[in-house]
Amino acid sequence: MTIRVSVVGAAGRMGSNVVKAVEAAGDCELALALDAGDDLSQITPENTDVVVEFTVPSVTLGNVLALVRQGVNVVVGTTGWTDDKLDQVQAALDDAPRPDQSVFIAPNFAISAVLADYFATLAAPYFESAEVIELHHPDKVDAPSGTAIHTAQGIAAARKAAGLGPVPDNTQSDNGSRGGVVDGVHVHAVRLRGLNAHEEVLFGNAGEQLVIRADSFDRGSFMPGVLLAVRKLSTGNYPGLTVGLANFLDL
Ligand SMILES: NC(=O)c1ccc[n+]([C@@H]2O[C@H](COP(=O)([O-])OP(=O)(O)OC[C@H]3O[C@@H](n4cnc5c(N)ncnc54)[C@H](O)[C@@H]3O)[C@@H](O)[C@H]2O)c1
Ligand SMILES: O=C(O)C1=N[C@H](C(=O)O)CCC1
Which PROSITE patterns did the record assign (predicted)? Predict the structure, then answer.
């Protein structure tokens, strides 16, 4: 069966790559390719099995809620998700027109980044110190990256489960130099022309350091993960809200 895929944000850096990946995939066909100003109500279960949404953090929640109400499954790569926004998606799914409807949200579709994030949760209980550095192209509108937030949250949860206290830090004044803090984990954002998407997780104990690093040099690195999510949702076997590509990997 051919999977009919519509793309929202199709003119963007990610959306245009998704359009090409869908057109090149033997088991998918492009249904609609929409961008800002287009009417999303054109997307219906009659023409679309799965929508892929890569837009901007300020509009993605509204798009996803509208698409759920229209009865379609949605794969979301846009960042900016908070617990409150995820709760709104869950509530929309609870009232969705079809009982088996799915929304899948991933802060990162690159296997290197997903594994780095996963390895960081495994390492976290064994180190006194942990910090996250994300490095991206300067056209990115949000900081820190959705991936870095997810990684820091995972590290914090693993530390808490292991009974670790706060990371040691005797800084008395920083003027912003210590970066943002996500669940007690410092997160630093670099924006540099020439970069694409990169993350480094630093762990430290007295006398030793572990560095976990993932580099996406090209947006093609995200496409296998996007297509994997499209294929998974097209089966109807993942009703409800799922967050993170690790859920579709045998880790
Ligand atoms: N999950 C991942 O693996 C991954 C990878 C790369 C980027 N991202 C995220 O994806 C998002 C998009 O990144 P990008 O680099 O493609 O950005 P971009 O600015 O190149 O593209 C965004 C597109 O969305 C369109 N858009 C804006 N408002 C819209 C609306 N209301 N309806 C439809 N389209 C609308 C814009 O016109 C633009 O074409 C960002 O949040 C980014 O962080 C995620
Ligand atoms: O280029 C971007 O923008 C990216 N955004 C995601 C994030 O914020 O984590 C994933 C990596 C690329």
Answer: DAPB (PS01298)
Structural domain count of the chain: 2
Specify whether 136 is catalytic.
Answer: yes
The response to whether 137 counts as a known ligand-binding position is yes
204 alpha carbon, distance to own chain's centre: 26
Catalytic-role residue among 20, 136, 150, 198: 136
pLDDT in tens, 29-63: 999 999 999 999 999 999 999 999 999 999 999 99
pLDDT in tens, 196-205: 999 999 999 9
On whether both 137 and 76 belong to a single domain, the answer is no
Instruction: Indicate if ipTM > 0.85.
Output: yes
Please list the residues that pair with 29 across neighbouring strands. Answer: 4
Domain that holds residue 101: 3-105+219-248
Q: How far apart are CA 100 and CA 224, in angstroms?
A: 24
Decide if 140 is catalytic.
yes
Active-site residue (options: 20, 85, 140, 160): 140
- Ligand 2 centroid to 117 CA: how many Å? 14
Instruction: State in Å, rounded, how far the first CA of the chain is from the last one.
Output: 28
